Amino acid sequence: MKPLIAGFAALSLCLVATGRPTTDGKVAVTVVKYDGLTDLIKKNKGRVLVLDFWADYCIPCKREFPKLVALNQKHGKDPFLAVSVSLDDLGDDDAKAKVQKFLDAQKATFTNLILDEKPEVWQAKLKIDGPPLVIVFNKDGGLEQRFADKAVDYEKIGQLVVELLKK
């Protein structure tokens, strides 16, 4: 019975990691390593991707998060994928619960990930000290633009998404 359960868990992770939004209105959160992010980008060629890196302790991130939800609502039927990536430390006992509570309150029914890496790893790979960070990828899977710190502007991000969807 255990292999069957493990198989379903792996299938669920694969579905979430490939960017399929939940259809039952529930908010799913999946823990991934950094390689899971790169796989997500590769598997979603043909879509415009917006990756929003945030954390529960980041007030600007949480203030701007409803704009990601609105962007998803506006373009969810287009070849578009919104992805939230929590940078909260899973070493903290209640980190996943805090992330889940926030995402539930936001009704973030798109792909939600928690990056299971030490800060020094994601800081080096993402080239940031901390969130907020939003990265937009074009339909070819190429990096289109990064918005970091005070430059995170969802009006500009939304305009960029519209431009990229037309291409």
CATH domain fold name: Glutaredoxin
Specify the helix fraction band: 40-55%
First CA to last CA: what distance? 48 Å
Computed Rg: 15 Å
Q: Give the overall shape, derived from the CA principal axes.
A: globular
Tell me the name of the CATH class. Alpha Beta
Helix-strand topology string: HEHEHEHEHEEH
Number of beta-strand segments: 6
Could you say how many structural domains there are in total? Answer: 1
In CATH, the homologous superfamily goes by the name: Glutaredoxin
Supply the number of helical segments.
Answer: 6
**Order of strands across the widest beta sheet?**
1-4-3-2-5-6
Written overview of the protein:
The chain has 167 residues and is of the alpha/beta class. It has one domain (2-166): 3-Layer(aba) Sandwich (Glutaredoxin), CATH 3.40.30.10. 46% of the residues lie in helices and 20% in strands. The chain contains 6 helices and 6 strands, in the order αβαβαβαβαββα. A 6-stranded mixed beta sheet has the order 1-4-3-2-5-6, sandwiched between helices. Helix 4 links the parallel strand 3 (80-86) and strand 4. It is globular, with a radius of gyration of 15 Å.
SSE layout and pairings?
Blueprint: H1 2-17, E1 30-32, H2 34-43, E2 48-54, H3 59-75, E3 80-86, H4 95-106, E4 111-115, H5 119-126, E5 133-137, E6 143-148, H6 154-166
Parallel strand pairs: 1-4, 2-3, 3-4
Antiparallel strand pairs: 2-5, 5-6
